[in-house]
Design a protein that fits this description.
Elements lengths: L21 H9 L3 E7 L2 E5 L5 E2 L4 H10 L2 E8 L2 E7 L5 H4 L7 E3 L10 H18 L11 E4 L4 E4 L7 E2 L4 E10 L7 E6 L11 E4 L6 H13 L3 E12 L4 E10 L13 E6 H5 L14 H11 L11
Parallel strand pairs: 1-5, 10-14
Antiparallel strand pairs: 1-2, 2-3, 2-6, 4-5, 7-8, 8-9, 10-11, 10-12, 11-15, 13-14
The structure holds zinc ion.
The site of zinc ion has 8 residues, from loops.
Length: about 325
């Protein structure tokens, strides 16, 4: 049963209550159980191979990385171990290479789904929160510089006349598998593609939630905007943190009540109805499913399993 969504299986205690105790945080950072999770220009440190692993750094190398860092965030604790993300984007690779052993800085979306789930989740979390720090150095209200607080879980405007507090941003996005009943033939699902994707890749429709909008309304609006299909019976399936750079994907199923597709070319290049049979032969026929590790892939795999002849489909 493909019931696991990647980047959701973190076992870390985020220590939200202890975060504002600076002495406790400092004790954890300088203790023997401290591990550094470096992020360099949105890339994560990974020991590559058939079973890639997170490149955690400890000891003297960890202290050197902290000295180079522009930001440090307590990710959380796991027993005696403490994990801190650091932003070392200002350093060049030659300066970093003696400190990172056999590991490399890579885009987590490639090795992430192959990693042990809690490690992948932690690297995604580190990448997301460091990205937020890098992009919120100035106050959105007064334009003054901001300073990190709460072990990296808040930034505050340094101008006392303003003093506005800023918290890490997560942008909600809905992603939906729209299906048609098979009354007059085989059941189908609606997939589309964007022109920037690799050739012949199709995936579920998706879009950002707007202010003042419910998730269900966002599902119906996005599907209609992109394909002119009307939907009903919007049902929540599950969520996936997608900090690439700052999204939270909220997965839904919806039932189509119309069937004529008009692809909105300003949003998508193409959209089509696919049967389960077509999707099971997808790669053979020269098409591509969404990226392994994505909630889109997970939702499609679940729908394939519901068919008359259930088959196990590797979801990731
Ligand atoms: Zn301000």
């Amino acid at each position: 049963m493909p019931n696991r969504i990647y980047y959701t299986c973190g076992t870390l205690d985020r220590a939200a209550i202890q975060r504002d105790d600076e002495a406790w945080v400092e004790g954890r950072r300088t203790g023997d159980g401290a591990f550094i999770v470096p992020v360099w220009r949105d890339k994560s440190l990974v020991v590559q191979g058939d079973n890639p692993e997170a490149g955690f750094v400890s000891g003297a190398d960890a202290r050197a990385l902290v000295d180079m860092a522009s930001d440090l965030v307590l990710l959380g604790i796991d027993g005696e171990a403490s994990y801190f993300a650091v932003d070392i984007s200002a350093s060049d690779l030659p300066a970093l290479s003696p400190l990172i052993g056999e590991a490399d800085f890579v885009d987590l979306r490639e090795p992430g789904p192959l990693m042990e789930a809690s490690q992948g989740a932690m690297l995604a979390y580190a990448r997301g929160i460091i990205h937020w720090h890098r992009n919120h150095r100035f106050c959105g209200r007064c334009g003054g510089p901001t300073e990190s607080r709460q072990a990296g879980h808040q930034r505050s405007c340094a101008d006392p006349a303003c003093g506005r507090e800023h918290y890490p941003r997560t942008d909600p996005a809905v992603i939906m598998l729209v299906t048609r009943d098979g009354d007059d033939g085989a059941a189908t699902c609606l997939l589309g593609r964007q022109p920037t994707w690799p050739a012949r890749r199709y995936s579920t429709l998706a879009g950002f939630v707007e202010p003042g909008e419910s998730l269900e309304a966002a599902v119906a609006r996005e599907v209609f905007e992109e394909t002119a299909i009307r939907v009903s019976d919007v049902r929540y399936l599950g969520s996936q943190p997608w900090p690439f750079p700052a999204s939270l994907m909220l997965g839904f199923r919806a039932r189509a009540v119309t069937h004529e597709i008009t692809a909105n070319k300003s949003e998508i290049e193409d959209a089509r109805w696919f049967t389960r049979t077509q999707l099971l032969r997808f790669e053979e026929d020269g098409y591509h499913l969404p990226r392994r590790g994505s909630i889109a892939r997970w939702m499609i795999a679940r729908w394939l399993e519901e068919g008359d002849d259930p088959v196990f489909v590797q979801p990731v």
